[in-house]
UniProtKB/TrEMBL annotation:
Keywords: Amino-acid transport, ATP-binding, Nucleotide-binding, Transport. One of its GO terms (molecular function) is ATP binding. InterPro entries: AAA+_ATPase, ABC_transporter-like_ATP-bd, ABC_transptr_urea_ATP-bd_UrtE, BCAA_Transport_ATP-bd_LivF, P-loop_NTPase. Residues 10-241 form the ABC transporter domain. This is Urea ABC transporter ATP-binding subunit UrtE. Pfam families: ABC_tran. The lineage of its organism: Bacteria, Bacillati, Cyanobacteriota, Cyanophyceae, Synechococcales. PANTHER family: HIGH-AFFINITY BRANCHED-CHAIN AMINO ACID TRANSPORT ATP-BINDING PROTEIN, HIGH-AFFINITY BRANCHED-CHAIN AMINO ACID TRANSPORT ATP-BINDING PROTEIN LIVF. The gene is urtE. Belongs to the ABC transporter superfamily. The keyword Transport applies. PROSITE patterns: ABC_TRANSPORTER_2 (PS50893).
């Protein structure tokens, strides 16, 4: 499927990011259109997570632009980006282990207008997507399995009603059955809400669910195209260890 028929939601141009004096992201260009899934692939350590953290505002670019909807994100702190409709599920999931599943979910609604003071109702769609969470609402987040924690992290991000969802390696270390559950949930939420997704992933089946891919090497984009045209050579180069 082509991404050119939809309106650009996120447009990153000539992005450069440093850790101290180490040049991590090099002149990165990437575009995401409304209602599309874009996958960022590459071996470990090439800068994929750094890119996501820069989009959400946890890291600041040295140069380049990040346009989201009609505005520039360069000076916006992470909480304002979340309230503007960017959800983020980190590689480490970042659920709070000491509080319950329900309390973790409610935190996702801090991104909504009025925050938790005005938003306490958990959308039933969340439990339709991830039934195990409704069963475990009173269980501590830290008592869930890795796959259940990943479902909780995604559900929490979705409760902020994002227009763009950033997912960093959502299938890492998860059993195959839950990987399929997560794939199906992401596809369904895109279909039903029109959300866009930027996915960092190594699992080939999930990668192939995306509309468009960008391949990263040494902090720069070295290949891109429609995912249905992703060649075996590119897969071998960027998706195998």
């Amino acid at each position: 499927m082509s991404t050119t028929s939809a309106q650009p939601l996120l447009q990153v141009s000539d992005l450069n990011v440093y850790y101290g004096e180490s040049h991590i992201l090099r002149n990165v260009d990437l575009t995401i259109h409304e209602g599309k899934m874009v996958c960022l692939i590459g071996r470990n350590g090439v800068g994929k997570t750094t890119f996501l953290k820069t989009v959400i505002g946890l890291l600041q670019q040295r140069s380049g632009t990040i346009h989201y909807q009609d505005g520039q994100l360069a000076t916006q702190p992470p909480y304002k980006r979340a309230r503007a409709g960017i959800g983020y599920v980190s590689q480490g999931r970042d659920i709070i282990p000491q509080v319950t599943v329900k309390e973790n979910l409610l935190l996702g609604m801090e991104a909504l207008p009025g925050g938790l003071e005005k938003n306490r109702h958990i959308d039933p769609l969340i439990f339709d997507l991830f039934p195990i969470l409704e069963k475990f609402l009173k269980r501590k987040g830290g008592d869930l399995s890795g796959g259940q924690q990943q479902q909780l992290a995604i559900a929490r991000a979705l409760l902020g009603k994002p227009k763009l969802l950033l997912l960093d390696e959502p299938t890492e270390g998860i059993q195959p059955s839950i990987i399929l559950d997560i794939e199906h949930a992401v596809q369904r939420i895109m279909k039903e809400t029109g959300i866009s997704v930027l996915l960092v992933e190594q699992h080939l089946h999930f990668v192939r669910q995306s509309d468009f891919y960008y391949a990263m090497q040494r902090g720069g984009i070295v290949s891109s195209g429609q995912t249905d045209q992703l060649s075996d050579d590119v897969i071998k180069e960027f998706l195998t260890v």
